[in-house]
Amino acid sequence: MKFVEKDGVLVARFDDGENFIAGLKDLIETGEPLKIILSGLGMFRGVKLGYFEKGKYIEHLIPEPVEVLALSGSLMKNAEPPYHIHAVVGLKSGEVKGGHLLEAEVWNTLEIFFLTSSLDLKRNEKKHIDI
Asked: Is the whole model's pTM more than 0.85, yes or no?
C-alpha cells in the first residue's frame, strides 16, 4: 500500500494481493487520529461480510473477485475497535451484497480517499462513538 496525505485528505492505493484490513491497521497509526472514508474504488476477492445480530456477526464469504461499489466507515487511532467499515460489492452476475467488512484481499487495485482530522474520538462500552 502506498499513500499520500495533504490538506486534510489522505489517498491510499492498495495493490493486487494485499490484505485490505492489515493495510487499514497500518494507516490507523499514521498522521491524524481520525480518518473518514469518502470513496473507494477497485476490486476485492475473498471478501467476508458480516451482519451484526444479537452481539455477533453472521458471516457471508464471497470467494470470487468483486467490484467495490461503495465503502464507508472510519479509522480511529485511540478507539477499540480502531476501524468500522461497511462495503457494498458487485458480483460478476450483477448481484449486489453488503455489510460490515470483516476480511478482504485486494484484486488488481483499490484506491481510497479519506478525510482526515485531529478530532480524537473514542468508543464507549456499547462500542458507540463517545461524543
From this structure: yes
